[in-house]
Specification:
The protein is 42% helix and 11% strand. By secondary structure, it is α/β, with parallel strands linked by helices. The strands form 3 sheets. A 4-stranded parallel sheet has the order 4-3-5-6, sandwiched between helices. A two-stranded antiparallel ribbon has the order 1-2. Strands 7-8 form a two-stranded antiparallel sheet. Helix 2 packs across helix 6. The chain starts with 13 loop residues before the first strand and ends with a helix. The N terminus is likely disordered.
């Protein structure tokens, strides 16, 4: 059952009279976790991120910051949900041509996700929900999901959000609702992600370095080129979309709408 709804800007420090920090596993004692499970907190979120280039104007931590904030909002909506420590680094091999990017092998990322799941099952969680602030992790999560379920012997419900088209569509709608240009949404260091960082970590955004990247949806051939030869094969500055016109208000709307998208999915998926 969903907890009380939220609106943009209403990021409460409490969930069902529980402080947000008390929902984060790494800040709890083992007794805290045991008591939470006894009180019906049998759902746990596993947020995933990335440390990768986001054009000349955003920090490498963008996807990780995004996933961490989304986890809080989703936990607020789901209710009786704890948050596992974020898997900060993801699968970003297509960004390695640009300095600073760190990428896990798909097998490494899957092994970490599996170890998270088997550990959490052991403690009694019944619902394990994975999502990523880095869209590049989506196909890897989709591929590993059957094996994660097999590794836990069907003892729990494991779900992962992996619909990149719906996510991008949600961003376009949110940007338009907040007064921005939806054609500037491309999915990487664009108006949506830049606005998110203006909301989450505004001091990190280099506004004077805004530049247009590749505009328009990538064709299947361009996507293949990007996955095989890296993002610089389709965008020399590492941007898909356009950051111009970004604002904290757009970022707030994007956070709200994507959190709602993921919450609805996790409430309905088997």
């Amino acid at each position: 059952m969903l907890a009380h709804g939220f609106s943009p800007g209403n990021e409460s420090k409490m969930v069902d009279n529980t402080p947000i920090d008390a929902l984060k596993l790494e800040l709890m004692t083992f007794e805290d976790v045991s008591n939470a499970l006894s009180d019906g907190f049998d759902t746990v979120l596993i947020p995933c991120g990335a440390i990768e280039q986001h054009g000349p104007h955003l920090p490498l931590c963008m996807d990780a910051d995004h996933a961490e904030r989304l986890a809080v909002l989703i936990a607020q909506e789901l209710g009786r949900t704890l948050i596992a420590p974020i898997i900060t680094v993801g699968c970003s091999a297509h960004h390695l041509a640009l300095s600073g990017t760190i990428s896990l092998r798909k097998e490494t990322f899957e092994a970490v996700c599996q170890d998270y799941c088997t550990s959490l099952v052991l403690h009694g969680f019944k619902h394990i929900l994975l999502f990523s602030g880095h869209i590049g992790n989506f196909p890897v999560l989709a591929d590993m999901l059957p094996r994660l379920r097999q590794a836990t012997n069907g003892k729990v419900r494991i779900a992962a959000y992996t619909d990149s088209q719906a996510w991008i569509g949600c961003w376009k709608h949110a940007v338009q609702e907040a007064g921005g240009d939806p054609d500037h949404v491309g999915g990487h260091a664009d108006i949506a992600e830049t606005s998110l960082m203006l909301k989450l970590r505004p001091e990190s955004v280099r506004v004077d370095r805004f530049a247009r990247g590749h505009l328009g949806a990538l064709t299947p051939d361009q996507l293949d080129l990007m996955w095989n030869n890296g993002i610089v094969s389709v965008s020399r500055n590492g941007i898909i979309g356009d950051p111009r016109g970004s604002s904290a208000a757009i970022g707030e709307q994007c956070l709200h709408d994507v959190a709602c998208l993921l919450t609805k999915y996790f409430c309905t998926v088997d």
